[in-house]
């Protein structure tokens, strides 16, 4: 559900305004109403800095902390942040140096580790060494009779050789060899370059160790600094949204406060005799959204936020789609073994990562649903339990369903969710616009449920053919009046009739497509089972006929195959129910969205809990 909000307007004498902001920040319940959207240049700079600090914190979170006796000599969060930036710059500079040195090393590898000092000594005595290469096929052995040449090596299809000259002849001072290229080599030896690369690698390794030590010792300081910057930004935003009244003597601030959290604020305002008003939001107001759900539905809020938050004039659909999403996930994955694996892994990591408890709790519920649907369809790690000759399973098999029944179940669940969504649409329209605007949707419910009920009664033999016909005409008449003539209470009957015909066309085409979309649940469930069976068959058929290697190869194929299946099928089981929720269910529930999250002006340590 959405927690109701009240819009507060505060009038505070200018001399005590900063103290007022300090106090309401301590109380931490006021979501400041933003009138001025454009932040100041100073705030924009703070935004950028806050992003950089947040990036530094995330970098430390990804590093494995190293507990050492030597603590980094960093006293404040600013020092931690600046040191991290310095280390990053040094590591990047070292990386560029290594890249450059590796290029030089590659140039020198064909020539070996020679001493450039000897080359320079020879040049002083008038003997010049020229480093040359050419493609092996282009090398002419006659060159050796015309010039002083010594072949060094052949590498990657090229021949590397040196040409010795005593006198300066030719166009450029030396005689040229047609078809060969002269190389300009780095003026240091291969050994020196390798030593330099090793030294830089050690320096970078030392810097990385320092980052790991900072992650262990100094991360809290950086987080405190982040909170401080965030608090400073919030204060500047509060001042930006403040308007001056009575020639600057009075400051006015507006904000939103949840009904469930207003008592402490009211007590402070009354005790300090601060003038304020509190009123219900108007229809045009964009009210911040604070959700309050039970423990089960709260787990699915993260999925609802992937799409959008509801606005304050409609229902929160999270508790209504949560059971369906859980069922659809289990339906799509549909293997009891995979579900059991998800439950066990989520339980294990939940103990090690308490910070991820909500996500892992959601995984436990989804895994449980997969176990239930896996038992229902008779699939366990790709093994077809329905056709398995296991004595103790015989009593359970009567509860299992085949593929035809699975297909029908997917359609039935789709019809139920769509009809449930239409019921919620009636409630949504009644809340936001009034009951009379929901009559068209009620007409469609009467039509679908009424005709379905008549068909069921006739098929069961509970009513005669003539009575069924009379009931059908009655349903059509009531639904027709509501859909065609009463779809808008403030329009004349002719406009309503035209709009109703268009609505009939849209619903007739859209509703069938919506229902058929749920076939994907059947397709995903069957494909998951088939993939598991294929890898089981591969493991049995591809294992060598060896008492040791046979079981080992079979286990490796099973681990690899079922690992891929869990990942791919799990991804599909996560994504496709989201699509059914956000497209089919949200559309038929009349979801509008557009809400923004409730973020109170509060101290960094305070948290919103409802």
Characterise the protein shown here.
This protein has 3 domains: 84 residues, Alpha-Beta Plaits, CATH 3.30.70; 75 residues, no CATH class; 294 residues, no CATH class. It is extended and about 120 Å long. Strands 1, 2, 7, 8 and 9 form a 5-stranded antiparallel beta sheet that branches. Strands 4-5-3-6 form a 4-stranded antiparallel beta sheet. Helix 11 packs antiparallel against helix 19. It contains 19 helices and 13 strands. The longest helix is centred in the last third of the chain and has 40 residues. It has 610 residues and is an alpha+beta fold.
Summary keywords:
610 residues; alpha+beta; Alpha-Beta Plaits; 3 domains; five-stranded antiparallel beta sheet; four-stranded antiparallel beta sheet; 19 helices
